[in-house]
Fold:
Amino acid sequence: MFLKSIKTNALKVKIQRLFYTRFYSNEPSTLEKKGLVLGVYDNLDFTKAAEKIDNESGGKLKDILNRVIVLLMMNSKSAIICHLYSDCIDLDEDDNEKTQSFNIEEKITLKDMKYNELDLDSERLKQATKKIRPKLGETEVFHGLADYHAVAVVGLGPKDPPYNEVEYLNETKENVRIAAGAGARKLQKLCVNKIEIESFACAEAAAEGAILAVWRFQDLKNKESRDTVSEIYPFDDNDVSGWQKGREKAKAQNFARMLEQCPSNIMTPTHFVECAVEELCQAGIQVEARDYDWMQNSKMLSFLTMAQGSCEPPLLLEMAYCGGSPDNKPVLMIGKGVTFNSGGLCLNPDNKQLLEYSADMAGAAVVLGVFKGLSALKVPINCNAIIPLCENMPGGNAAMPGLVVTALNGKTIRIDNTKHDGRIFLVDGLIYGERYKPSITITVATLADNMRIAMASGPSACYTVSDLLWEDLKKAGADTGDRVWRLPLWRHFETKIKAATDADYRTVGKGKGGEPCTAAAFFKLFAPKGEFIHIDISGTGRVSTEIGYPYLKKNLMTGRPVRTLIEFLSYLAAEGK
Structure:
């Protein structure tokens, strides 16, 4: 701020159904509390919406903000302002840090003046306030303004910053997301259940930031333990289409987050399919699930071999979104759908990290989120999806290291390490995808934890040999704030995985290092004809750290990069690809 084991299958199914129903029936508080989020730039200029509220209140908003600034300069105690403006300003446990909330370029002290005697219109104070800059995302809450229970004024940073070529980032849009998210979350903490967000001159980004920020996973909590469910509305509806676009993209990402966040004893392959059917069929998307017998008859033996360590039956999910001309070739998306990944017989050694592996189906969740967004926005493009769903568990039937399996195209593959399960799980899906004759194939998966070490939760890793597709994907990431970074997809890495003495290919590859790149090269060998993109979301697609993306709450799943892929596919549709 400014101032600074479910024991029986029957019970399991019952809980699964109850969970999914509850997810769509969160009941808002019966006592409506309205809130409003407004913006102020780092030069202390209000946005147009904030100016409007200030004028309607007879300059009260500006007056209170100035007094807060003066209080900071005097290094006074919060008790003074609490006493004078207790009806206007919200103070909480963080108020003792409020003197650190501004960047003060020059320390200013007013030793001989009392706070309630200050002339706020004096030239001395006007010059002094120019030295204070509210940081991006810092929020102060005021009460008693207009008809709102609370009004949050949030720092927007500099006005209209240019596109950042070094960062691959549209900072104007990202600043709006951060500000809208910070203001909405602050009001949510104050139990405000109806929050109006000003557009900040970019309604799409404002809707995204606010809706993503207030999302919570509370479906397994008792009602009395749940936090406030805040609904987001536009304050100024000048850009209705922009707000609707941002809202639908954020809702699509939140849908992916829900799938990722749900514990693995509930979010089994079967329940994942149920969620897809329930959510996407009503949106006009064709959804079909293939069972074990169908896959066995289709000779998807490599996938079934890796899945046989679990008691949960594997499934293959197919989806089709037909938004373009029937004559246009589709884009094929394939997502990794491992609903829990223990590492198999090569058990993952880190118990803390194992907690995240219920979200090893993040790639599959992202694909569902993308399809939901495409349908809601009516993007004129054709898309197909193939999602292999299973668990990777140890057991008497589990795949062993060194095992050689036969893929759908007859090629043999040596399994070097069962922790690298995604390579095998997606191979048969890639080969099967040839029947769609796609123009572009996109794989989305959590494959290599090395990516988290290399790039943390910053960008998702992108592999493609097409410069044109890379430029579109880079632009989409810059506009959505959910960026991607290109890594090599050279023949060098194909050579590593072809260096097997007892099979056609091996999963990890000969020699040390390069696992993320060899994984992408492995997929490319089995991908249908046409352009190919692999996106590794190991560092970005699971638990949020809130670093760099403050509108994605810490310790909740991120759902990234749903909005980037929706934007990218929208570009392709506009370009007629």
